[in-house]
Amino acid sequence: xxxxxxxxxxxxxxxxxxxxxxxxxxxxxxxxALAMATIARSRGFRASVLLTKAAVRKAVLGxxxxxxxxxxAGDIYCMTFAGHGGQIPDRNGDEEDNRDETWCLYDAQLIDxxxxxxxxxxxxxxxxxxxxxxxxxxxxxxxxxxxxxEFVGRVRFAPSPVIMMTYxxxxxxxxxxxxxxxxxxxxxxxxRGDPSLLGLTGCQDNQLASEGQDNGLFTGELVRxxxxxxxxxxxLKMIAAIKPGMPATxxxxxxxxxxxxxxxxxxSPFSI
Length: 272
Description:
The strands form two sheets. The chain has a six-stranded mixed sheet with strand order 2-1-3-7-8-9, sandwiched between helices. Helix content is 31%, strand content 19%. It contains nine helices and nine strands. The protein has a single domain, classed as Rossmann fold, CATH 3.40.50. It is of the alpha/beta class.
């Protein structure tokens, strides 16, 4: 019988001692993580949750490393993230805009190159599902979002001046993280495994992810479409069903990588 492991991260604020006095306060990221954990558990996943102060680099990477060791062909790993997205200077030349995208964890940022390097380590035949409700998430991610003057509301976008101050204050740390990592486009091939990766993200690369009253707009629509497990269809149909409920300024995205990704995208969502 296949195994499903999952990790659900919700970061409502960050440590100002690392982020140069910035608290990055959001309202419903923890609610998003709990909602996604509920969905995962209803489908038989062994789900872990990391909320705000517990959502630190060591804990996230540690969970990933354990999952890499534990999962075999036919198993599935799901990781969801709700919080701020950021960008820092790219040091290994894999970004057209010379910026690496990040997830703002409580204690420090997690770079997209690090995430791809970890996902690529899963064994052949493992499915890896990523659900990201944050800015810079279109493909976790390749292009900076354009600030839209018509946008109103709280967005999951770490301000560039704050992130650059943070980067300069911890330059040796962030540059060191990228030093030995291959460019993202080579990472899946560089990994020891051959996983199928599928990503569901809250917006396109040139858009902003917004919060709603109870959840992020994307997560809220995903939960609505899921309808306590009554949704019948594939990941492809789920994204199509979510889009009509989103504002014109925010279009959810689905992307894939690795082998057998087309088959993965046609499976029933969150199925083990």
